[in-house]
Give the backbone structure.
Amino acid sequence: MSTPLIQDIVIVGGGTAGWMAAAALSTVLRGRYRIRVVESDEIGTVGVGEATIPMIQRFNRVVGIDENEFMRETNGSFKLGIEFVNWGRVGDRYMHGFGKLGQDLWTVQFEQYWQRMRKLGRAQPLEQYSIARMASLANKFMPPRTDLGNSPLSEIAYAYHFDASLYARYLRKLSEARGVLRTEGKITHATRRGEGANPGHVDAIVLESGERIAGDLFIDCSGFRGLLIEQTLQTGFEDWTHWLPCDRALAVPCESVAPLTPYTRSTAHRAGWQWRIPLQHRIGNGHVYSSAHISDDEAAATLLANLDGKPLADPRPIRFKTGMRKLAWKENVVAVGLSSGFLEPLESTSIHLIQSAVQQLIDFFPDRGFSATDIAEFNRHSRFHYERIRDFVILHYHLNQRDDSTFWRDCAHMSVPDSLQEKLDLYRSHGRVVRRDNELFAEVGWIQVMEGQNLVPQRHHPLAELQDEQATHEYLEGVRQVIAKCVDFMPDHAAYIAQHCAAKRM
Ligand SMILES: Cc1cc2nc3c(=O)[nH]c(=O)nc-3n(C[C@H](O)[C@H](O)[C@H](O)COP(=O)(O)OP(=O)(O)OC[C@H]3O[C@@H](n4cnc5c(N)ncnc54)[C@H](O)[C@@H]3O)c2cc1C
């Protein structure tokens, strides 16, 4: 006898997480399940989250989004990576660019040849072998041209900057057109099943109006408060503040200035860092900081003193705690988005974590049996990704040589998770990075941050010595020149947007 299928899916919350879940599920489930989003205008959304990583293209493709239309509707710009300023030492500047570094030869990775030639004083800075970085410096952008064979132009990797509230609005329109129902109202509490099948599962949420909304599967997208996963099911939270001490942010938009840069910038300050996210109509800025190290007033003054344009509002405070929910899926509640955990936006990973959770939910979509084995696998996957991204974010803080504040000294001297220490040791030894179990950030991302923050390996891969020195030098030079020529060929970022996806001005 087969287990009955679920029928009613209730998505609690209509921020980016809620509407991404609604858009994906309404696409995949094709009207065979009832999907309802419940959101409260009075409570609103967190209202930040403007920078993404390239995997979002896959999400947008699956839900059938046309790139140019989406860019127009969300005032979007393109993103080739993140420029980090003042992270290793004050005055340092490097980029974690998307896509490849150089061009691999047959035996070992490109970076190993570069390591060898650098020791011999015959290599240029690593960034000159990255099309993402060189194009960013020239404010150029174009999507990859697959007709260009193995040219670097055929492999350009990119993501987007967009207005998060417009993205949620866009996804809402799309979801409602696919049959998703929406209820506006404030949820006061949830009720749970007593005796019978699935005792303890949430069976309904109750609104301030008294309306009761029943469901079989609840997706908790209620943001930091974790209305169902925490307030109702008391799942518990694993706190990572001892590794990532920033606990507050101030966000403020400012007027645009030219040029329209195709990258996010992250500038480290005395006790945190500042993001700069260029959109078509404004620049999004925010200061992420540790309240144990600086006051709110100092944080606000630092933020406002480092804007490129005139502020368009007062800085808006946001408080957070870094860490993850002990279980992302418990009983019949799946937490997606901020309700499942939080990692600061240093590598723009939160929207990706939403996408990844929704994908996993589709892969492990339940029937009324709610298999414990499937749920455990979902939770294992979620934990793995959270922890690996956490390690990558910690890397930026830990690998610093700054001596200008206790914040940076404490970060440099803290002990880090074993999984990160292994990566650091491996790189320090022979410049190697091992990507475990399809973790989010590939070797090339780790290398750019480790090199950018001045971790120089003691040795390089012995097989990088197999090729003649002069030939290796010429090979590196060849790669560099090809990249420079490709960048010359690329259009200006603002011109590309003006031609293909300029937002309508109000
Ligand atoms: C400072 C900061 C910067 C960030 N920058 C980035 C970035 O650059 N890139 C990135 O990928 N991510 C970023 N993020 C994360 C990103 O903002 C979130 O992942 C994303 O917005 C999803 O939020 P959410 O939908 O989970 O929660 P929210 O936006 O908080 O939405 C919660 C929803 O639940 C509803 N709700 C809550 N309680 C109730 C109730 N009682 N009744 C009815 N409805 C209720 C609310 O009305 C709302 O609709 C950032 C986060 C912060 C804090």
Notes: The chain has a mean pLDDT of 96. The chain is about 35% helix and 20% strand.
